[in-house]
Design a protein that fits this description.
Elements lengths: L1 H8 L9 H12 L21 E3 L4 H4 L14 E6 L2 E6 L7 E3 L2 E2 L5 E2 L5 E4 L2 E4 L5
Antiparallel strand pairs: 1-2, 2-3, 3-6, 4-5, 4-7, 7-8
């Protein structure tokens, strides 16, 4: 009786995949990219009224840089309050520069507005101006 129990309990697993597993594998093969390829990682970053330099020097931004490339420089752009308006300018440290709502910035200040996007390489920053 004990030998029969061992043979029934500790047998090799079935080598045939279940129908559900095969269907899931076929579904994943038809997916053009990995399902998580377009997931967005976010981080909250507060800039004081005195301003800040943004880039890999900011831990919250550095954690979003998956590849060790120069797309995001240590000191990529600067944000400051100029004449009562928050503005951004590029520091010229990265080849791709700083992009504000699809427009490449230079060293001149560009005003920020609520909801605008700042791109530093592959990192996108959504601006939320709080009173």
């Amino acid at each position: 009786a004990g030998q029969h129990f061992v043979m029934r309990t500790f047998c090799a697993p079935d080598t045939h995949a279940s129908r559900d597993l095969c269907r899931q594998v076929e579904h994943l093969r038809r997916v053009a990219q990995t399902p998580w390829a377009h997931d967005v990682e976010t981080a909250m970053l507060r800039v004081p009224a005195a301003g800040a330099i943004l880039g890999r020097c900011v831990p919250e931004l550095a954690s979003l840089c998956w590849e060790d490339t120069d797309d995001v420089a240590m000191a990529h752009c600067k944000v400051a309050c100029v004449d009562g308006v928050f503005c951004v300018c590029d520091l010229g440290a990265a080849g791709e520069g700083t992009i504000l709502d699809g427009r490449r910035l230079g060293s001149q200040w560009a005003p920020l507005r609520d909801g605008c996007d700042i791109d530093l390489g592959l990192v996108r920053i959504r601006v939320e101006l709080a009173p």
